[in-house]
Amino acid sequence: MIAVPDFRSLEARTGKADWFHLDVPRHLFHFTFATLTSLLADAGLEPREVVHITPEYDVFSFVQTLQNIMGFPFNLLYGIVRRREARLAHARQCSLLSVVAVISAVPLTLIGLVWALLAAALGCSATITIYAQRPLAVDRD
Asked: Taking all residues of the chain, what is their mean pLDDT, rounded to a whole number?
């Protein structure tokens, strides 16, 4: 099983440098369905199932990407919700922008839920999961 952000998703193409899942430098490489299936084939694996939704990532990514596009400090909401020791510097103090980011996340999450389901149905969600395995041996008796 491999699960990664989908670099060809509508969210990635819309968000560009503001896309939450771009996440440089933690994500050094970005993948599309085509690149993943090619890499799997090179490794002797065949896709058995493809899933175009990971709700816990897709919905939050939608919200954070929109807030980034709207001009909030980059990934502010993510910095707020992370554990205290993992927070980003700009999320350490409570500010009016932090409050607005949290409050605006509520309606954006509702929109994000609808978007995640629609994007999954269209095969263009922010994440992609592929379950693959080696080809089954054919018994030639």
From this structure: 91
